[in-house]
Amino acid sequence: MAKVYVPSTGVEDWKRFLANPETQWQRGYSAMAAALSWEAAQGLPPEISDLVGGSPELLLAIPEHKVALPGGRRDSQCDVFALVRVGDETLAIAVEAKVNEAFGPTIGEGMNNASEGKMERLRFICDLLGLSAPPPDEVRYQLFHRTAAAILEAQRFKTDRAAMIVQSFSRDHRWFGDFAAFAKLFGFEARPGQAMRHILPSGVPLLLGWAIGSPEFL
Prior knowledge:
This protein is an alpha/beta fold. It has one domain (about 25-215). It has helices spanning about 20-25, 30-40, 45-50, 105-110, 115-130, 140-155, 175-185, and strands spanning about 55-65, 75-85, 90-100, 160-170, 195-200, 205-210. It has a 6-stranded mixed beta sheet, with helices on both faces. A hairpin with a 2-residue loop joins strand 2 and strand 3. The radius of gyration is 16 Å and the shape is globular. The two termini are about 30 Å apart. The mean pLDDT is about 95.
């Protein structure tokens, strides 16, 4: 994990952090939409600010931020990781940007013939979230490890709260059903643009939300 970061000079600086920049860096795709959105805001994009509430101030945003998790071989890579101040509190946010891209394999697909390391990772995440392991097969695994990334970074930076926010630029809220199924595990009925707050086993508040991005960035 890189320890030294340099300031962005514009949208194109985001491209080099992508796993496959030649295919992912296109208009209408989540990577470019997120970059355009965050650069235009020069702070938190308004839809994310609305979910956080109060008068949030962006302290730091890192594109394609990687967070190591126990077990497995790959880090959880947040499309954007942000540190935010809200009044006297600080908040660690992992952002997952979406347009038409799916959330990847379900728990059932991802854990089929899984290695012991991968099973260890899932158990760790469930313990972190306060959920029973194994979770339902149909829930998307990406939502689990992205939320875990937010919590681990909240611990590392000693913030008061953690948040996992899907920043969706899809006009028809594509894949919202997958997010709603994940939120239901915590007892929530998810709605686009509405924040949900859950207290983790550690006592740290976790915010979950589906932010509605502006179509101007597609």
